[in-house]
Amino acid sequence: MALAQQVQLQRDPGARADLVRRVTGSPALRLVGRRLLTAIPVLLGVTLLTFVVMNLIPGNPARLILGINATPGQIAQVDHQLGLDHPFWDRYWIWLDGLLHGDLGIAYSNRQSVNSDLAQFLPTTCWLLLYALVVSLGLGIGVAMLAARKPNGLADRLSLAVSMLGLSVAPYVLALVLIWVFAVKIQWFPAISNSLGSNPLTAIRALTLPAASIGFPLFAIYSRLLRADIVEQMQREDYIVTAKAKGLKPWRVLVVHATRNSMFTLITLVALNLGTLIGAVAIIEPIFSLPGIGAELISAININDLPLVEGIVVVFALVTVAGNLIADLMYAVLDPRIRYGRSAS
Amino acid sequence: MAARLPDMTTLLAPGAQPLPSLLSARRLKNQKLARTLRFWVPAGLLIALFFMCFIWPHIYSIPPGNTGSILAAQEPPFSPGHWLGTDPDGVDIFSMLVYGGQVAFEVGFSVTAIGMVIGGLIGLAAGYFGGWADSILSRLIDVLIAFPALVLVLAVAEVLQPSEIHLIWALSVFSVPAFSRVTRGSTLVVREQPYIVAARLSGTSSWRIILKHVLPNVIPGIVTFSLLGIGVVVILEGAVDFLGLGIQQPEPSWGAMIAKGQTVLTAQPEYVLIPSIVLLIFVMSLNLFGDALRERWGVR
Amino acid sequence: MRTACLAGAVAIVLTAAACSSGGGSSSSTSTSAGATSSSSASPVSTGAAKAGGSITVLEGKGFSGDWPLGLDPATNTTGSADQDYYNAVFGQLFELGTNGKQIPDLATGYKYSNGNKTVTIDLRPNVKFSDGSALTASVVAWNWTRDLESSCTCAPSWTIARANAKVTTSAPAAGVIKVLGPLTIEVNLTAPNGAFINTMYDTIPNWIISEQSFKSMGETAFAKLPVGAGPFIMTSDSFSNEITMKKNPTYWDQPLPYLDGITFKSVSGDEAAYEAMLAGEGQVYIDMSTPQLLTEAAQKFNVITQLGTSPYDLQLNTAVPPFNNPRAREAIYAMTDFGPILQHIFKNAYPTAEGFTGPGGICYQQNVPGYQGYNPTLAKQLVAASGLDKSVIQFGTISSSPVAAETVQALSQEWAVFGVKTSQHSYNLNALIAAFLASGGKSWQAMIQTAGAYDPAGGVGVGFRFGSLSPFSGVHDPKLDSMLAAAAASSSLSARCPIYNQAAEYIAKNYYGPFYFSFAPANVAVKGVAGPGLTSALPAVAVAPAVLWEDVYNNPATS
Q1: In this predicted complex, what is the ipTM?
Q2: Which residue numbers of B have CB closer than 8 Å to C's CBs?
Q3: Host H or E run for residue C284
Q4: What string of H, E and C letters represents the secondary structure of C170-229?
Q5: Is B131 in CB contact (< 8 Å) with chain A?
Q6: Neighbours of chain C (3+ CB pairs under 8 A)
Q7: A122, B93, C66, C180: which has the fewest C-beta neighbours closer than 10 Å?
C-alpha cells in the first residue's frame, strides 16, 4: 500500500476498519482461509489412521528394545516406561498433544527424540528431492520447448519416446541399472553414499544416481505435460496467433509467452506430486545406503518403532497436504469461476 | 491465459495434427498406418503377455514357479527343459515370469477395477450432488491421498499375513481415491453442460441423469486413466514385493525376482534384467495402448 | 503471468529454505580424520607389514552395521554385533587369535581356584586409556559392576550373589568382585564355571571403558564418542551409518597399530558392499555370506572363510505334534541328504556337521557316532509309520539370513519327495521371538537356527537351543541338562570335551534335531590389506569373528 494510505489509516480508525473489511471480504483470501481450515481435519485424520495402523502391528516394542533374553519383568518395566500400558485413546491423545506442541516423542530404538532424528535425516532427503526436482524440471522444460517448437518433428518424436520410457520404468529397476552401469562399470559415481560429504561436489556426486532414479519418471511427466500445454497454446491462444502474424519469431513467442504461461500448470503439478515423491524416496534411499528419511522409515517399520514411524508419516502427510493446498490455491487463484465462490473445486 | 487444472490424462496427449488439407495423400496414408500400428502393437503385446501368463501353461506344461531341484540350480539360459535357465534355488525362470505375470495381471486389473467401480461411484456422487456430501467425501479422500501409500501397504502386510488378496485390498485403498478424484473432476465439468442442466431442470431423477448422461461422457477419460493406473499399480506391487512385504516366498512375483536378483547383481545381472525387461514391456504396452485409445476416442 | 512467476519463485524459495537446515550433511560433529586411501587392488600377494595408510571397512545393516543407541557396551542393546568398533576403541582383556590361540591383550593371565568358583585375573601394567587415566583393577571393577547392573540383555550372565536377591539387576553383593591389588581382580561365583574365561570373548566384561571420561562426559555423550585403551580413538560417529577413527598414539603395544585411521561404513547388504569395493569405496567387508558373490569376489579380492563355531541346526519342538513322536524326528534325519545342498547352493564351502561343535571352537567333533544319515528307504517307512505326511509342517527361520532362507527352501524340496509338506515362514527378529513364545512355546514346530558357540557353555550355545529352561529350545530333557551343566563346571578341556561328545551322541540318539553344516562368514579384503581375520582365519565367536585391528596393515606393494 502506498505510504500515504498507510499514514491515513493510522490517523483514521474508520478507514482502518473499512480496509479490514475489504481484505477479509476478498474472495481469494476467504478461499485461502477455507482451504486452510479444511486441511486441519485431513491432518487429524492422517494422524489417527497412522496411529491405528501402527498399533495393529503385532509385536512388542519393549521386547525389541531389550533383546532376545528379556524377562517378562523387564518387559513390563519398559512397557511402563514407554507408556505402552495405557489404553489406546489415551496414548493417541498424549501423542497428539505433544504433536501440537511440536514434540514428536521419543523413538524406541535409540531413545533419541524423534525431532532430532528427523532433523538429522531430513536434510539429505530434502537435497535429494530438490536435486531431482530441479534437474527434472529444468530438463523437462528444455526438452518440452524443443519438442513443442515443431510438433511431430524429430525432437518431438524423440522426446515422446524417451518420456514414454520414463513413465514405464520402475524407479527401483532404474536405480539398479544405473548403479551397475555408472558405479560399477564406469565408476563415475559412488555406489553407496553414507553421507553427503564435506563439500557440494561430493554431495552432487553422491546424489546424482538416486536423483536420476527418482527424476527420470518426473522428467517424463513434466516434459510431456508442458509440451502438450505449449503446443495447445501456440495453436489456440489469440495473442500468440497475433504475435506470429505480426512476424515475431516462433522461438521468441514460445519462450516469452507460451512457456511462461504454462509454468503455473507445471508448478501445480509439482505440488501435487510431492506426496508420491516421498514414497519413491523410501524405496530408493536404501538401495544407495543414503541416510535419509525414506531409509529411516523402512527400518523404523521393520523394528516397530512407533513414534519414529508416526513422526515420519506426519511429516510426509504435512508435505503432501501442503502440496495439495498450494495446487488448489494456484488453481483457484487463476480460475475466475472458482475464485468467486462456486462449489466446484 | 489458460487456467486449467492439469488433468493427468492430458499429459499423454499426442501432438495436435496439422489440417488434413495440407497433407499429401501418401502422408495421410502413412499417418493412418502409424495410427493403426500405435493401437495394435501395444494391444498385441498385451495380448501376447496375457497368453503367455494364463493360456500357455495349460497348453504346454511348464515346471512349477515356486519350487525346483537344487540339483538344477543356476542353469544358464537355453538349458534343456529350462529355456531361460534357473535361479540359485533351481526354480525355472520362465515359470517364475509366467506365474509372477499372473500375479501382476491379477493385482493390476483387480485394484484398478475396484478403484474404477467404487472410486467412480464416489466421484460421481460427490461431483454431481455437491454440498455437504461432497465436502465430507472429499475430506475423506484427501486423508487417504495424504497418507503415504507405502506405509499403509507395509503395515497391512505385517498385520495380515502378506498375500495376494491382502495386497489387492491395501492397494485399492489408493486407487479408489485416485479414481474418485478424476471422476469427480470430469463430473463437475460434464454437469454444467447445457443438456444436463436442462435435464436437471426438467425434473429427471438424479441417478437417471447420472447413469444415462453423465456416465457415458465420463467413461472415456476414466478408462484411459485406468490404463495408466494399471501400470502404476503393477510397479507399486513390484515395489512392495521388492521390499519383501508382498507376495511371500516362495510364491513368485516379478518384484521378488528383482529383489533376489539384486543380491547378486554384479555376479549374475540376468536375474535382475530378465524380470525388469518383462515388467517394462508390460507397463509400456499399457501406457502406449492408453495413448492410442485416447487418440481414437478423442479424449483430451 | 506475474502471479505465476511469483508463485513459482516463492515455491522454490520455500523448498530451498526447508532444505538449508543442516547444511547438506547428515553426519554430525565430524572432524576430518581418516581420509580413505585407494589401495591398488591389483592381484599381488601381501607385502610385509607396513605402517601408515587408512582403510574403509564396510559393515552390513541388520547386524554389525547398526548401533542405534551408541557404543557404550553396557547400554547398547545390539551387543556384540558391534564388536568391531568395541575392539578398535577398547581393545579386549583377552583376545582370540588365529586358530583359536588365546592372546592376552589388556589382561596378562588368569587362574581358577576354589573348585572353579573363583577366577583371578591379572591386568597388564602401564596401560593408559586415551584420555590419560590408568587402567587399574578398580576401574575394571567399576566396569564390571556397571555391566552387571545393566538392564540390557547383553549384561553378563554370571551366577553371582546379588545385593538384593530378588532383583536381577541389583548390584553384585559385597565380595563378589574383589580388587586384590592395583592390577589383580577376582570374581567369586556361586556355582562352578570352568568356561568363565572362554565365555568372556565377545561379551561386555571383555571391553573396559574409561571411568574418568564416562564421568566427565556423561552417559549420552560417552555413548557417541566412547573412550578406551584400544588401538584407535573415535573421532566422529553417525549412529548406524558411519564412524571415523584415528590411531591411538598412547596405545600400550607400540609401535602398533599399523593403520593411521579406519572409517567404518554401514551398507545395506552383500551386493552393495561388493559394488562399493569394486568401485574402490571400501577396502574391507565384514561377513559376506551370499555364495555367488563369494565366488565372484574371490577372483578379485582376498576372501577368507573363518572357522565356524555354530553349525546350522534344525530345531524340532518335542513338546507338540508331530515332533513329540521320535519316529517323526528320525524321519527328518533320514529324509535329508545335505550333500547336494552343500554342493549346489554353498559350493562346498563349509564342512558338514553332526553336532553342535564347529572347527573354530573347543571340543570339535565333526562326526557323531550313531548319527542317522540319509536313508531314503528308512525315511519312507518312518514317514508312513509316523504319519508325517498327513499334516503341513510349519517351518521357520530368520529373514535376515539368506543362507537360512536357501537352506529352508532346499530342505522343503527334499522332503516333498517323500510327501511331506511344509509351510515356510521367514521372520524378522521380533516376529521370530514371538513365534517361539506363542502359546507358551507350543506353537512352533521346526526352525532352522544356529546352535553352538566357541565354548558350548556360553552365548547362543547348546543350552540356548537344547536346554529345558530356555524358551528358545525344543527339548526338555533333564538328563541332557545335567550333562551340559557338568561340562560347564569343569575348567579342563580334557574333562569337558568327552562330556560334550556324549551330549552330542545323546542328542543324535534321541533325534532331537539334525545338524547340517558349520557355516562361517567370510571377510573380504582388497589385496594388500592384511591381518588376522582378513588374510588368516579366526574362530567366529559371535557370528562374525573379531578382527584384531591393531595387527591390520595396508601394503599395496608389489610381490
Answers
A1: 0.80
A2: 1, 67-71, 73-74, 88-90, 244, 248-250, 262-268
A3: strand C284-288
A4: CCECCCCEEEEECCEEEEECCCCCCCCCHHHCCCHHHCCCCHHHHHHHCHHHHHHCCCCC
A5: yes
A6: A, B
A7: C180
Size of interface A-B (CB pairs under 8 A): 175
Residue from B160, B242, B263 to probe the interface with C (highest C Cβ count within 10 Å): B263
Alpha carbons C551 and C91: distance in angstroms, whole number: 12
Chains that touch A (3 or more CB pairs under 8 A): B, C
pLDDT by 10s per residue, chain C, length 559: 333 333 344 444 444 433 333 333 333 332 323 222 222 222 234 567 888 889 999 998 877 888 888 899 998 877 778 899 999 999 999 998 887 789 999 999 999 999 889 999 999 999 999 999 999 999 999 999 999 988 777 788 888 888 887 777 788 888 899 999 999 999 999 988 888 998 888 889 999 999 999 999 999 899 999 999 999 999 999 888 899 999 999 999 988 899 999 999 998 888 889 988 988 889 999 988 888 889 889 999 999 988 888 888 899 999 988 999 999 999 999 999 988 888 887 888 889 999 999 898 889 999 999 999 999 999 999 999 998 888 899 998 887 677 787 788 888 888 988 999 998 888 776 677 778 888 778 889 999 988 878 888 877 778 888 988 888 888 999 999 999 888 888 878 888 999 999 999 999 999 998 999 888 889 999 998 999 989 988 888 766 778 999 999 998 764 3
CA distance C497 to C503: 10
- The Cα–Cα gap between B286 and C403 comes to 38
pTM, entire model: 0.80
- The answer to whether residue C426 neighbours chain B at the CB level (below 8 Å) is yes
Q: State the smallest CA–CA distance between residue A329 and chain B in angstroms.
A: 11
Q: Chain C residue closest to B262 (CA)?
A: C271
Cβ atoms B56, B99 nearer than 8 A: no
DSSP-based three-state secondary structure for C121: strand
